Amino acid sequence: MKMLNKKQAGLWAILLMPFSLNASNVSFLKYAVIADFTEGDVTQLQREYLQVLKENKPGDIHIWKNTKTENGGDITVIKQYKQNDNSCKRLKFKNKSKTQSAVSYFNFCLIEKKWQLVN
After folding, report:
1. Is residue 33 domain-resident?
2. DSSP state of 4
3. Average pLDDT, the chain
4. Rounded distance, CA 43 to CA 1, Å?
5. Does 1 fall in a domain?
6. Burial of 70 (0-12, 13-18, 19+ CB in 10 A)
7. pTM of the predicted model, to two decimals?
8. CB of 56 within 8 A of CB of 77?
9. How do 72-83 and 61-65 pair as beta strands?
10. Which domain holds residue 99?
11. 46 lies in some domain
């Protein structure tokens, strides 16, 4: 099983870290769980959150697990809203590896028929 290299883990850290960072906030360390994920885990996570964005409503919890690695988590739709006439959803990600776990929140909007990460 192929593990993510540091560059790939860093890129995922940017995607999966909370947006509200400041000098006293150490939440950027929560990306470390992603360093334990394989490429297969990351690919599955991408598939899973896109499915959640397309199909789930606020309050829905979607559980995912890579049976090969036992890594996984759950994705919850926190709220649905409009921003600049675009449909948007706030998601809560709980990701778990065998050794650690992390919780992160992200906003996505449907812009030109594609879900995009927004602030």
Report:
1. yes
2. P
3. 80
4. 13
5. no
6. exposed
7. 0.74
8. yes
9. antiparallel
10. 6-18+27-118
11. yes
Chain position carrying tokens 């776990």: 101
For residue range 46-88, what is the model confidence (pLDDT) as tens digits?
A: 889 999 999 999 999 999 999 999 999 999 999 999 999 999 9
According to DSSP, the residues that pair with 12 across neighbouring strands are: none
The one-letter amino acid code at 49 reads: Y
Pairing of strands 114-118, 101-111: antiparallel
Tokens for 26? Answer: 């150490």
Q: Per the domain annotation, does 97 fall within a domain? A: yes
Give the chain's domain count. 1
Sign of the Cα torsion 34, 8, 19, 114 reads negative
For tokens 């850290």, what's the residue?
13
How far apart CA 91 and CA 94 sit, in angstroms, is: 10
Angle between helices 39-55 and 6-16 (to 10 degrees): 20
